[in-house]
Amino acid sequence: LVSDPRQLGKRCVLVLPVTHLRSEQVRITPGLSWERTALDLAGEFLSNPSLVPLKRSRFVVVRFDTDGALLADFTKPERPEFRLLFDPANLEGDWIAKFSGRVFGLQTTFVASIAASVASLDPNATDVRSTIEQGIVSGLAGMRRLLLAGHGPANLPPAFPFDQLAAEIKKPTWTYSVATVPADRPKWSIAASDPTGKARTAPLFGLARRVALNGVSALRGLPFQQFGKLFIVDRQEIESLRSLHRLVNDYSRRDDTKPLSIAVFGAPGSGKSFGVKELSRAVLGDKVPILEFNLSQFDDASELLGLYHQIRDKVLEGRMPVVFWDEFDSKKLKWLQYLLAPMQDGRFQDGQISHPIGKCLFIFAGGTSHEFASFGPCDTPEQKVAWDEFKSSKGPDFKSRLNGFLNVLGPNPRQIASGDDPADFSFPIRRALLLRANLKLFGNERLTIDRGVLSAFLEVPRYLHGARSMEKIVEQTRASAGTGRVGRSHLPPRQLLELHVDADEFLALVERDLTFQFEAEAMAEAIHEFYRELGKREGWKSEFDMSYGDLPEFMKDDNRAAARRISEVVGLVGLYIVPVGKAPPGSSEADTRQAIEQNLELLAEGEHDGWLETRQRNGWEKGEPRNTDLRIHNRLVPYDQLPESEKKKDREAVNRYMEIVAKAKYQIVTGPQPRPGK
């Protein structure tokens, strides 16, 4: 790989595309998940002898097309560090696949950006890595700009777009996220780790709240995949669906007379049919014919003949149908013996005539097993009787004819032998996405919802019938709320909730923050005095520079609303409020302060959004100049449009949250959310 290793040294930054490594004796899985690709490459650096020469450089940058790069830091050769810079919405090769044709100069642009960042360093600089990371981000964005610009119009002489690339490198249009790669954790997930790569200890309730309120734009920083209306963030699901996407795409492009057979497993109500349909449409187009047959509704094998003829008719029309065999494992696996020949040979027997089925997708949705591994017993002495029955039902033959499988995760935590999987941190995000889908919010339109109701939807321990239960509760709530704000009064009555959740647990979550919010008066004066102090310190003039008791009633209400929303704002990052002395084990004031500091800008935005929503609900409008009597305010704009002086107010307010809630004898804490009592 390197002709003269002596040229490498402590001041060297080596840059190369991943394709160069794959052409050698190096194993790097492409395009399944960012975690899989990054762990593969980090593992190769640590264990593959053919990469030893590269490790003599201080830094090695490996580029994954225009979508990401791995920065290997060998400053401490005995303990190398790996950083992944990636586009959350695209995996390796995804972005460039949208364009036909290629252009010369991509690698040159990438290297030039990194070189420019290094050249700007002070000779005695210590934080070299972060500067190189900035150069990597600018270089990836510059490559995309070059692909869009090309070398000029076809009717003019070719010319390299230097000005456009320089502008892009100075101020990148595209954003990339960064994650520390723990090479010693093969099951590492970006969603289940903090920015340093350390494993999280609690589910992602904070991120789920942001996703529910603001849509998928809140997923910035986490890898996600979209297939039509299906959004997924769990590494396991991403890898499974990407594998199937590749399988279906390859099958659709080749001549084949046998069906492509895929089995889908998941708990009842996990959304098996929805996921497969969206994947099929993403690959084959929105007009792909989908045939659905529920085998539990049939009694005799002869009834399958009519179904096979329906499939064949679609094929004869020149189309490739998707055939959804629901509950294929019903009636003690009775149907497996009749499905084997069509799966294996692509033919079915009707009397004396053998008919070809043709090219189609067979999707088998199971109803008895939550995952492929639990479909059927093991061939062990302890399970001999069960294995013999499974074998006589053609279970092993059926599994051997599958081309692939998918385990679908629903709104409940993933199940393992001992119960809920403690490593499933993403289930609140799955719930948030399902909530928005059931409310018909597929873009980034903001959801207006009572925060207690949102807590219940995201945090209730279990939906009794999976996605179906969540759908029913949301459906009845939406019918009552109409197009307005979703509130507590719109929830179904208790007896209907009991059909789908533990109603006591659900309603306790709805009301969890009420006790704290009743203490708003005790905190409102502290909030007002904080803003008075801040105004005097910063030299701001305010018509409300007076004691709390002298304030007009609408300003007192403003401060009470500010107190009540503290629990909502801190919930955006997974913090919550409890009475003093009721903190969960392991939580500390230092942890809370660190969480606030690390998420200060996000919390400040939440503080402003809460103020903005309160003012708008009270009839205020944006306008110039500010007029209290007419309820006109010039700062009724999104957070990113505020001047820096106004953003500073929100940051300062967030930094005083812990002090303010203490006035009411409460505290902000980290750690696992308390399970509501009955």
Topology (elements, then pairings):
Blueprint: E1 13-17, H1 18-22, H2 34-47, E2 59-64, E3 68-73, E4 81-86, H3 106-119, H4 128-149, H5 162-170, E5 177-180, H6 205-214, E6 225-227, E7 230-232, H7 235-253, E8 260-265, H8 272-284, E9 290-294, H9 303-316, E10 322-326, H10 330-333, H11 336-345, E11 347-350, E12 353-356, E13 361-365, H12 384-392, H13 395-400, E14 404-407, E15 415-416, E16 419-420, H14 427-438, H15 451-459, H16 467-481, H17 494-497, H18 503-510, H19 514-517, H20 520-538, H21 553-564, H22 566-571, E17 576-579, H23 589-598, H24 600-617, E18 621-622, E19 632-633, H25 644-655, H26 657-662, E20 666-669
Parallel strand pairs: 1-2, 8-13, 8-14, 9-10, 10-13, 18-19
Antiparallel strand pairs: 2-3, 3-4, 4-5, 6-7, 11-12, 15-16, 17-20
Biggest sheet layout: 5 strands, mixed
Q: Rg, please?
A: 29 Å
User: Care to count the β-strands?
Assistant: 20
Within the largest sheet, what's the order of strands?
1-2-3-4-5
Fraction of helical residues:
40-55%
The averaged pLDDT comes out at 88
Low-confidence spans: none
